[in-house]
TrEMBL record, chain A:
Family matches, as SUPFAM superfamilies: MetI-like
Lineage of source species: unclassified sequences, metagenomes, ecological metagenomes
Assigned GO CC terms: plasma membrane
Gene3D superfamilies: MetI-like
One GO process term, biological-process aspect: transmembrane transport
Name of the molecule in the record: Unannotated protein
DNA-binding found in the keyword field: no
Domain ABC transmembrane type-1: start-end pairs: 80-270
Species: freshwater metagenome
TrEMBL record, chain B:
Gene3D superfamilies with a match to the protein in the record: Periplasmic binding protein-like II
Pfam family, one: SBP_bac_8
Protein name from the UniProt record: Unannotated protein
TrEMBL record, chain C:
Keyword field contains Membrane: yes
Record region (Disordered): 1-20
Gene3D superfamilies: MetI-like
Localisation per UniProt entry: Cell membrane
Cellular component aspect of the GO annotation: plasma membrane
InterPro entries noted in UniProt: ABC_transporter_permease, MetI-like, MetI-like_sf
Membrane-crossing residue ranges in chain numbering: 42-65, 102-124, 136-157, 198-218, 239-260, 292-316
Keyword Metal-binding appears in the UniProt entry: no
UniProt protein name: Unannotated protein
Main location: membrane
Domain ABC transmembrane type-1: 98-313
Membrane topology of the entry: Multi-pass membrane protein
Length: 285, 450, 326
């Protein structure tokens, strides 16, 4: 009895104190930039411009927040809503389309499959900036300029998403399982919805979350295609805070903080799930 | 003083409205379409479009909705406007900063020629009907107006502000260094740039060893001298040969070499701190007195006030060496694919009329490009307590009137960037001046040819 | 639930760019499920293929077309054949950008990997208190926008009054480091931003593969009297090979596209273009100098680099998996 426990746990000695210290430093470094945003946003520019700068939050945050929320043509709450609409649409669509295509690439035997997936992986590595002008012309011809569709439609599908889901499905679902189901007479769509989808739910959630985050923080493309304030996303709305010349650090950071806060709140709820998802994806895909 | 302005205002408005009544009477027979709701979409950056004036315009025109979209300068004037024009799309009004006017003057087809537009007329605010851009040109500073004219002579933008450039200096630090502090006497210290550099060296020589080690300097960034000198000339990198882009003269124009050499001289004399403008280091330096002078465009005064409120009263403004200076400024134009050109033009002419420019100056410190105001006591008499009650209106008005029109060419901004980088290399002691200049020429060849 | 499932299944870290071969399937390179009707595949990939062709591929192909022109989006365009490519290969900026990209990539990848493995090694200890708290916090940097965070970092890295230089001064360094003008210092600043953002993510990936290492390996090694370091060196590390390559590949894809961080520091990439990256170079040629043809040529060059890296990767992976099966 004792020998078993001894054999099983010798490497889990007590955690050295230094490890806790190290981890605390990492935690501090991870959080500090957010804290700094808040410090800058809650102090006057003059206080931030002292040396050494003030490291504790000041009392100005509410004033700055009000400025952000009421600034000319910022429409913060509209932008927040728009960003959610765009982010969730993209996330849901990417998960569904990627799962469908990923399933086909992983498990269905059709001609040209191998070449196609290699091609997709190849295009993943191209810089997206390359296609912006033609994409703009395209979106314009589809009459989607200055609508949220201009953000959503081109992002419904990404090569990365398909590739990721292919890997996940390939690794998480043994062929034998599907063989057995099909011998029992299940059709391909039935197998997909009843067997594949439930198994990859967790990984799909993570893919969706990353798509959501990417959409939330996207800046270059929205600033090109969105034109009227009622359609702005948060990142575009934030540029409305810039003064004519130079920078108003306080206002800028206040805006950035307010735009990040919803994500932080979201993170409290889904953080753990994200962690499991990332780790799941790592082992299996 | 305030009363004076108001009377001045109303007198002007009265004259103008009397004049316009006659015209309006003529138009009156056509049914008034003013009530149709219309949305003017505006692409701008920063605070080119002031919120107070927007509210005022909305009160005047309840039927008009102003939709304002701000972007950063480069995405706006570079990416977004190019993309929009190439896709035959665009807003109703767009703001172009002067650093991009050289580029856009090569593409007048992307803009409505404002000479072909006519104002609807605004009796209550003194805008007569039927005015084309040519009619209102006389109100504006001539060389500034030229920055909104396309290569084919079409008017593609009307100037908002002019970024008159003078020297902001710290009285307390000058005193400590044994320099005169009175703004007239200070201006006499540096009739030329060489004298400015010599003054800087004198200032540096008086510094304590500790200060020297801490990187204290005379001017915030010696590299800013380059642009100041370039704008004092009559040509930059192009000469006007009637073509779309102009003829490149950057390698032969003596002004370029003069500006470069003087800036290098200032850099090597060690009078600058090398802090980049608009960095957090710069803001802090402003508070700590790390530098005693800034070449300050009119619009920068507000920035200094906001960043370093504790230095109130310690600053003053003196004339810039070499006489006159400019940096920055914006034009408003109407893209050729705009959907509401008439409404846009009416807004634009109202917004940029002298009366409105004066309001912007009073509330925000942007110096008017409407030169008719330069005799206006409301402007000339304006003193700023933050800058030791310097008559900033008078100083800047005198400065901008000394400048001459400069022909700007298509790739001007790219050329400016390459030369700026070259100066930066010398300042960072990465290259000698000669090597850096050789690389500039090499880089420019690529900019022009590739 | 997933945890239970994991326990039941044999775990094996795998390389993501290569289909995983289980022993039964080794003969077939790219297996599908035989009894499923493969023709459904066309229907299932159709939405992806169509959307991808329209919004992903078409713009890129159009860009390739553009690369043979001197292309002014607002004016006339003339066919110039291979001129753009010829000019590009003789453009010193290209090679500078290549150098910078790789330098930033190396500075952001390798230290980060070492740290991530170290962190994962700490986090795997089952007796660590607050495990899940630490794991979660690690992912927080991943959710922020690059632009906001660049402003924060450039304040911290300020040459004269930035906190980092003040700290270094406190440590006795009396020469302030210019994290913009210096070549390596500027790369360090950018690499720090990238590391800050991604280290947590990579730590979790390493942690996951570490947890998947069968306990027996450790047991037998500790019976042999191996020290902790020896265990790490001879048991843990070899098992991480595939994950290390995975992180390298993902890091390389990201590394070739580094753009927003340098652009926010200085849009032209610095006075001596010391942090001009390939993607920033492309962007500036297209959207600042309005040379679309030239920019498109840069894009094609980047594709070439990607192909070369993939080839190198392929060779290395081969070698590793051969070593692994030995």
């Amino acid at each position: 009895m004792t020998t078993i426990t001894k054999a099983k746990t010798p490497r889990w000695r007590k955690v050295p104190k230094t490890n806790y210290i190290l981890l605390s430093i990492i935690v501090f470094l991870s959080i500090f930039p957010f804290y700094w945003m808040f410090v800058v946003a809650s102090n006057t520019n003059a206080e931030i411009s002292k040396s050494p700068p003030s490291l504790i939050p000041g009392g100005r945050f509410l004033i700055v927040a009000e400025k952000v929320l009421t600034a000319q043509s910022v429409y913060f709450s509209t932008a927040l809503l728009n960003t959610f609409i765009v982010g969730i649409s993209i996330a849901v669509a990417q998960v569904i389309f990627s799962a469908i295509a990923g399933f086909a690439f992983a498990k269905l035997d059709f001609r040209g499959r191998k070449g196609l997936i290699l091609f997709v992986v190849g295009t993943m590595m191209l810089p997206s900036q390359l296609g912006i002008i033609p994409l703009f012309m395209l979106v314009k011809n589809l009459r989607m300029i200055d609508t949220l569709y201009a953000l959503i439609v081109p992002a419904l599908i990404t090569a990365f998403g398909v590739f990721w889901m292919r890997q996940i499905i390939d690794a998480q679902i043994p062929n034998e399982l599907l063989e057995a189901a099909s011998i029992d007479g299940a059709s391909v769509p039935r197998i997909f919805f009843r067997i594949v989808l439930p198994i990859v739910r967790q990984s799909g959630f993570v893919l969706g979350l990353f798509a959501f985050l990417a959409a939330w923080n996207d800046y270059l493309w929205p600033t090109i295609v969105l034109q009227s304030p009622k359609n702005f996303t948060l990142q575009v709305a934030l540029t409305q805070l810039k003064p004519m010349y130079g920078l108003d650090y306080g206002l800028q950071m206040g805006g950035a903080f307010l735009a990040t806060a919803p994500l932080l709140i979201l993170f409290i709820f889904v953080g753990r799930k994200l962690v499991t998802g990332v780790m799941d994806g790592a082992v299996k895909g | 003083m305030r009363n004076k302005i108001i009377t001045k205002f109303s007198a002007r408005a009265l004259v103008a409205s009397v004049a316009s009544i006659a015209i309006v009477a003529g138009v009156f027979t056509t049914p008034a379409k003013a009530a149709d709701p219309v949305t003017i979409r505006i692409w701008t950056f920063g605070d080119v479009i002031q919120r107070n004036l927007v509210a005022e315009y909305k009160a005047l025109h309840p039927e008009v909705t102003l939709e304002i979209k701000k972007s950063d300068l480069d995405p706006l004037n570079g990416t977004n406007m190019v993309t929009a024009c190439s896709a035959k799309n665009g807003p109703d009004v767009v703001a172009t900063e002067v650093s991009y006017s050289g580029y856009w003057r090569s593409y007048p087809k992307c803009f409505q020629d404002l000479r072909q537009m006519k104002t609807t007329g605004e009796p209550s605010t003194g805008i007569p009907a039927g005015q084309t851009a040519s009619d209102i040109q006389k109100n504006y500073l001539p060389w500034r107006w030229q920055q909104g004219v396309g290569f084919d002579g079409s008017v593609i933008g009307i100037p908002t502000d002019v970024g008159g450039l003078e020297v902001a200096y710290r009285i307390d630090l000058f005193k400590k260094a044994g320099l005169p502090t009175d703004r007239e006497a200070v201006a006499k210290l540096w009739p030329t740039w060489d004298a400015f550099i010599a003054t800087g060296q004198k200032y540096i020589s008086k510094l304590s060893a500790a200060n020297k080690k801490a990187g204290v300097g005379f001017i915030d960034n010696a590299g800013t001298i380059y642009a100041a000198i370039m704008n004092q000339g009559t040509a930059k990198y192009y000469s006007n040969d009637g073509t779309e882009t102009g003829k490149l003269i950057y390698s032969t124009n003596p002004q370029v070499k003069l500006a470069w050499n003087t800036t290098i001289k200032a850099t090597n004399a060690g009078i600058g701190t090398r802090i980049g403008q608009y960095t957090s280091d710069w803001n802090i330096g402003m508070n700590k007195g790390t530098f005693a002078t800034i070449l300050a465009p009119a619009w920068m005064m507000d920035y200094i006030k906001a960043q370093a409120p504790d230095t109130a009263g310690k600053w003053d403004i003196a004339s810039i060496p070499g006489g006159g200076g400019n940096q920055g400024g914006t034009q408003l134009g109407i893209p050729s694919y705009a959907q509401n050109k008439q409404a846009a033009y009416d807004f634009l002419t109202w917004y940029l009329a002298p009366a409105q420019q004066l309001k912007v100056f009073k509330t925000y410190g942007l110096f008017p490009s409407a030169s008719v105001l330069y005799n206006d006591p409301a402007l000339i008499g304006y003193k700023d307590p933050f800058f030791n009650n310097a008559p900033v209106g008078k100083i800047y008005a005198a400065g901008v009137q000394k400048l001459k029109p400069i022909f700007e060419g298509k790739l001007q901004r790219a050329i400016d960037t390459a030369i700026g980088a070259g100066l930066g290399r010398v300042a960072a002691k990465k290259q000698t001046a000669d090597k850096s200049w050789a690389q500039v020429l090499n880089d420019l060849k690529k900019v022009v040819n590739n | 639930m997933t945890v239970l499932n994991e326990r039941e299944r044999p775990k094996k870290p795998l390389s993501p760019w290569k289909p995983k071969k289980t022993s039964a399937q080794k003969a077939v390179a790219f297996p599908g499920v035989k009894s499923l009707n493969g023709r459904w595949g066309y229907l299932y990939v159709a939405p992806f293929v169509i959307m991808f062709a329209v919004f992903g591929l078409a713009p890129v192909i159009y860009s390739v077309y553009i690369s043979f022109f001197q292309w002014d989006p607002l004016g006339s365009s003339t066919f110039t054949g291979l001129r753009n490519f010829n000019l590009l290969l003789h453009d010193s900026d290209l090679w500078l950008a290549l150098r910078n990209t790789f330098s930033i990539w190396a500075l952001s990848t390798f230290p980060q990997m070492v740290m991530a493995i170290g962190l994962a090694n700490i986090l795997r200890n089952t007796r660590l208190r607050g495990k899940s708290f630490f794991r979660t916090i690690l992912l927080v940097p991943n959710i922020t926008s690059v632009i906001a965070i660049t402003i924060v970092f450039s304040q911290l890295f300020g040459r004269d009054f930035g906190i980092i230089n003040l700290l270094l001064e406190g440590l006795g360094l009396n020469h302030h480091i210019d994290f913009i003008e210096g070549v390596i210092p500027s790369h360090i600043q950018i690499a720090t931003m990238i590391t800050w953002r991604w280290i947590g993510y990579n730590t979790l990936i390493f942690l996951a593969s570490m947890l998947a290492i069968p306990n027996e390996l450790y047991e037998s090694s500790s019976v042999d009297g191996a020290t902790k370091w020896q265990q790490f060196r001879y048991v843990t590390l070899p098992q991480l090979k595939n994950t290390i390559t995975f992180v390298l590949v993902v890091g390389t894809i990201g590394g070739l596209q580094v753009f927003a961080e340098p652009q926010q520091l200085a849009a032209d990439g610095g006075s001596s273009k010391q942090f001009l990256t390939l993607t920033l170079f492309l962007f500036n040629q297209a959207f600042v100098n309005n040379k679309y043809g030239y920019a498109a040529a840069i894009g094609i060059f980047i594709t070439f680099i990607v192909l070369i890296i993939s080839a190198v990767n392929f060779v290395i992976t081969r070698k590793i998996s051969n070593d692994g099966t030995r």
